[in-house]
Amino acid sequence: MTTVIETIVGKTTRNELAAPETAPITAPYEKVSAARAQDRFTSLDLINSIFRGFVEMHGDRCYGDDKAVVAGIAYLADTPITVIGIEKGHTIRERTMRNFGSAHPEGYRKALRQMKLAEKFGRPVICFVDTSGAYCGIGAEERGQGQAIAENLMEMMTLKVPVISVILGEGGSGGALALAVADEVWMLENSIYSVISPEGCASILWRDHTKAREASVCLKLTAEDLLKLKIIDRIILEGATMIEELQSQLMATVEAYRVLTPDDLTERRYQRFRNNG
Known about the structure:
This protein is of the alpha/beta class and 277 residues long. The chain has one domain: 2-enoyl-CoA Hydratase, Chain A, domain 1 (Alpha-Beta Complex), CATH 3.90.226.10. It has helices at residues 4-11, 26-36, 43-50, 92-97, 105-121, 138-142, 145-157, 173-177, 198-205, 212-219, 223-228, 242-258, 262-274; strands spanning 52-57, 69-76, 79-86, 125-131, 163-172, 184-188, 192-194, 234-236. Strands 1, 2, 3, 4, 5, 6, 7 and 8 form an 8-stranded mixed β-sheet that branches. Strand 2 and strand 3 (79-86) form a beta hairpin. The chain starts with a helix and ends with a helix. The model is unreliable at 1-26 (pLDDT under 50).
């Protein structure tokens, strides 16, 4: 996934690269629009629908509490689970409070703190991802945004409990990957997962952000594309039975991974990412 832009640019210079003009450019960008829709369900919507007894934990024990990341413990059927989600909110007030789902470093540190507690007590971890990317403000950079994301990547790779990550809407760059180093990565059918936004990609390749539709084709960011590339493991169909399907699939997958030894679990996870691409 990280080589998509490099592969495109490697064929020619940015100035020589022509935007695709074929008809199918509409479909991927429609998925982008659906993933960004204001009325789309959020992490808290799914947490409250799938789990019971959710108790939210706050703070990173270092700087503060980032409301773009919700984390805590809950029950999946009768199994104690640590659940973490990047939350956008629905209304303007909620979205402003949640920073539109763009997490600060303390959000990622909060998530990691809960994952390490899950490892200590043997609880599987389920992550819900919906972010256009980590917050790139000066304050976030000063507080170690890059380091926080890197530490999550490193620690999740060796976490000795099952980890499942589900892309709900947008899965943007390192901000999404910081909660997606998992035994299995799933996507809802109208979600996207990419190293960069289509607008950002178009600005780099063609110096024209209006070519986002063309860029979305090049990026292979849809669930169908990423399943073919073996970047993700499953597509969850959206519709009336989505909650029931997601809940049953999570229960079955958690049980399947819990029988593995910690060494087998981490080795399998390591090989999964080594084989990407």
